[in-house]
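User: I'm writing a tutorial on reading structure tokens. Could you give me a worked example: one chain, its sequence, then its tokens, then a sentence or two explaining what the tokens reveal?
Assistant: Sure. Here is the example chain.
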Amino acid sequence: MPGTAPLHLAVEIGGPPRYDPEHYIGLARLAERGALDFVTLGDSFARPGLDALAVLARIAPATRRIGLVPTVTTTHTEPFHVSSAVATLDWVSRGRAGWNVDVSTTAAEARLFGRRPAAPADELWREAGEAADVGARLWDSWEDDAEIRDVATGRFIDRDKLHYVDFEGASFSVRGPAIVPRPPQGHPVTVVDGTGGPAREIAARHADVVLVRATDPDRAAAIRTDLRRRATAYGRDPGTLRVLAALTVDLGDAETAPEPGLESGAPLAAGGSYYRGGPVDLADLITRWHRGAAVDGFHLTPITPGRDLERMVNGTVALLQHRSLFRTFYPGGTLREHLGLARPANRYALEGGHA
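And here are its predicted structure tokens:
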């Protein structure tokens, strides 16, 4: 029946560059108090600021349950290093890591590295798909019980349980195995903004969570149907794809009505990416879309994180919990458990291959 599936909520904690970790820790703890699935932290080579993955590694020991998903750009970076860094975040967070795959398209960003010129978006997203593919292979290159730590024989690793990746792509080749043991989640959660263009195909093939922008619930449902169809064509179970509506939220004046055209019952403005209103109006919008089975949840970007996130958690989320639409506690400890996703089997263990 529509609306009976679990509702998933995530929030962006970025904004203007900040260099004090306590700021981000406070926001992540606030989101965790609301039992949100995960926080994201945006990143880009096009602007100054701290490295998102490193910041979330700092947040990991200061939080207990909230998922941690940094933006990681696959352009101008080595897939082997990316997979190692994301796996490390999963270890230090004890299974709460994900990564939001992104690309760098501008000439200015390319000049920062001086290794290659800017490329068309479709080419960069094909490369991002290969990076996601090789990352999953590297995470599987250690079987879960590859570490034996046998003091008597001096053997640390069972080499029969390490596997070569031997990946050959259009942009790079990777032999492996990884230098980081298989992450606690098996594969950290992969997030892709699949609103349109070449990113949608990569999302359907590789993502666990897809962010989309839509002007109304019917459009969102159509995008989700399209993503599931594409996922099925790649041999995936479409029911394992979590599609979240991406929405920038301004709760600057909770006491006044939303601007005309931005009421909870009306289409969203700015391509479905911006909402202005109060916490109750936002809860009504989320309720309506969820009960209509348009999406699996929402990824909310507060326009002023310190102010709006507090109003989301204490207003919007509290109301959704009161309506029994959103959980009041975490049923598990990993991000995959929050999202209702199984831990992937190791492809090499299933194949019985050896390095």
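What the tokens reveal: The longest strand covers residues 242-250. The two ends are 47 Å apart (CA to CA).
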